[in-house]
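Quick bug: Long-chain-fatty acid CoA ligase output formatted oddly.
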Amino acid sequence: MLDLGRTFLQSVERSPNALALVDGELALTYAQWHRLIVKVAEGLRALGLAQGDRLLVVLQNRWEMATLHWACQFAGVVIVPLNWRAKPEELEYCVTDAGVKAIVYEPVCAEAVAQSVAAQGLPRVGLDDAQGRTANFDTLMARGEPEAPNAGRTCANADDYSLILYTSGTTGKAKGVPRRHRHERAAALAHVAQNLYGHGERTLGVMPLYHTMGVRSLLSMALVDGLFVCVRRWNARFALDAIAQHKLTCLYLVPTLYHDLLADAAFASTDTSTVKKLGFAGAPMNDGLLKRLSAAFEPELFVNHYGSSEVYTFSIDQDATKKPGSAGRAGINTRLRVVRLEAHTPEDLAQAGEEGQIIADLLGDEAFEGYWNRPDANAKSLRDGWYFTGDTGFFDAQGDLYVSGRVDDMIISGGENISPVDIESVLSLHPAVDEVAVAGVKDERWGQRVVAFVKRREYVDADTLDAYCRTSNLVNFKRPREYVFVDDIPKSPVGKILRRKLSAGEYEPDRRGESHANHTETTKE
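Here's what came back:
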């Protein structure tokens, strides 16, 4: 298999004059970008990084970040991209855990770098006059000698590590997910195939390049000689302008960002007709948003992609509106099973319709081989050649997969296992509901009670929503026993709902008309 450096060279050789990268006023063709990438790759070598060394990069989605990603592939350096919002202790942990040899960062995260003791002993390339740097990006490029004998030569092979992605670490320490060039290329090829990308596609580079979705957007565009338009920080109006200006053809976003696009006042007057393919991942999309997006874009393809950093693709559904909530079937590089919730082996299979834990075969081309320096995490998640995802779900009678949540998010109320996703899908269809998240809150009688946290589009009260649930197909024991109206639903930087914050009371109540409204029952019928 080709390594990623040679993969990029394919596009340079096929379409040297095709537009490859845009960031504000900067626009580069594949030939121009390649020359820049080569300079940066040589600059990394001049900085003292050798094949297999790790480089920590703490940047937003700017041209330097995309360029560094490709430069590392050419230089054989392992890129370790980190959330630019990382706290000093998180950055310190990753510097030490990954054993990085240098850091590239920008002003927004300069304080975190400055407070990391381990970082102070390393070369620090700072952009935009970032404080505490030992070199700047121009110096890095100037150190490169693109006319040197080996300039432009790829120093990696398909079995070398390409990057280490750090999971969010919402509980305990973050986990490093090392992925080889062949894993990354297979995942990018699958992304192209499963989203039916054609030559010259154009996409919005908004999903962060420290996240598997962002990396996949970057790599997949190179595979089809396409365009990657950088979005440094999410702004719906900027995104809409980029769609119209650059005639983007495909979007790959988390549901939250799609919600923001539709909610922006400029959406109705923006020409989005060039967008023919929609894809989403990172979190379930509720039925209400699915319908609104389908009507607004009228896409030729609407893909629900379910995956992870560890195994990029678990399953896909290429017609997300046909069976709302369905994650479809295993991707082209994947085998999936659903085992019982208490299962310890991959052979303890759940029955059709029975909720269990989703697992994936580690022999799949996109699958990682184990966590970085974390034998404890490997012992928990890797069993008999299968990856235990920690996600709950079930196969329906037709063999389609439904993802119901996380094992840790499962609400156990009165002895019943209750998935938040089922309830959210029903409530999302009410016209007054803008966003909704369901979580379990401690209850002396029931263990946990089901609480719906609702961000309203227009005024609605708890009794109205309860009556709505009663007339839906939601079984009685899953109905929320309490409604809390909030200003916003707390989410991670990549748009995942943070249910633990809701359960802990970390939210701002909606004080418009009433601070909150509750509907409580003392019995379950």
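Actually, after a second look the formatting is fine. The two ends are 59 Å apart (CA to CA). Closing.
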